[in-house]
Amino acid sequence: MKNSTRALIGFVAWLGFVVAARTTPMSDRWTDVLLTFAALVLVPLVLDLVVERRDTGQIASAMRWATMLQLPAAACLALAFGLRPGLLALFAALPWMVVTALLASVGLARLMRDTWARPIDRLSVDVGLVYLSIGGLWLLLDRAGVHPLRFSSDIVALTAVHFHFAGLMLPVFAGQVARVMEGSRLAARGIIGVILGVPAVGLGITVTQLGWAPAFEAAAGCGLALAGCVVALLHVRWAMDARDQSPLARALLGLSGVSLFFAMVLAAAYAIRAFAVPVPTLNLPQMRAFHGTLNAFGFALCGALGWRLVTLKR
């Protein structure tokens, strides 16, 4: 079965999940909607972008298993969100953790194989695969009802969202930009900012929870937002210049870049909330509704479809 077919089946299943959930973007359950969308639709669309023909042996085997397990594991994850947090929900979410672990093993094996000779565009993709497994772990904690460091259930679930979108999609798309804009120093710097910024935001939230001043969290959030804006602007610039690409691909990538830019502006505004009051003020439900939705449907979906069109043409 092709990954595009898996994504189409996943999209139909996701629509059923949304109808059954009866939720809205301002609801707490919107987090579940975003995570199931990532697992059912976005990950299979992205899998074709992270495959390398020269992968053999255990790397190729892990990628094949991850691809085969993706759809049933994502379906189990949707079931997990229909259960109350606890042992049953934990077991239902476990297959998705296995898929993310397999993809992380692919990224780590490539990094160990090529070490410093790894091109930065491919390095970005590999790091994204590793970061996805962190999202899988936090998702498992959420479904088990575990709250490490006394984090609220919202923060645990949104950390999983962070590593599924900023952790996977942003590095993968940043790598795609660097690949088509070969030799661009700005693209390379954007990748470095993304690679460092994604875990830094998680660390910043953690140290704030431990009682530290929120300065580190604010700096990390603004740093990742800046790197994301660089990637966003490069999407738009390349979409405008790529005359050899189809109008649909260029429109999708342009929309992806614009969506990412505004999502990152919202992220920066939220990051500095302890030092300055953004206009309008932003709280966690609003960030989930606006920032999360922009990332999922504007940035990630349009980006995945656009880069697939570009990749299929090459």
Order of helices and strands: HHHHHHHHHH
Class per helix and strand makeup: mainly alpha
Number of helices: 10
Q: Taking all residues together, what is the mean pLDDT?
A: 93
Q: Would you identify the regions where 5 or more consecutive residues have pLDDT less than 50?
A: none
Domain count, please report it. 1
Shape label: globular
Number of strands: 0
The percentage helix is over 70%
Residue share in β-strands: under 5%
Subunit organisation of the chains: single chain
Can you summarize the main beta sheet? none
**Radius of gyration computed on alpha carbons:** 18 Å
The termini sit apart by: 22 Å
How would you summarize what this structure contains?
The protein is mostly helical. It is built from ten helices and no strands. It has one domain (3-313).
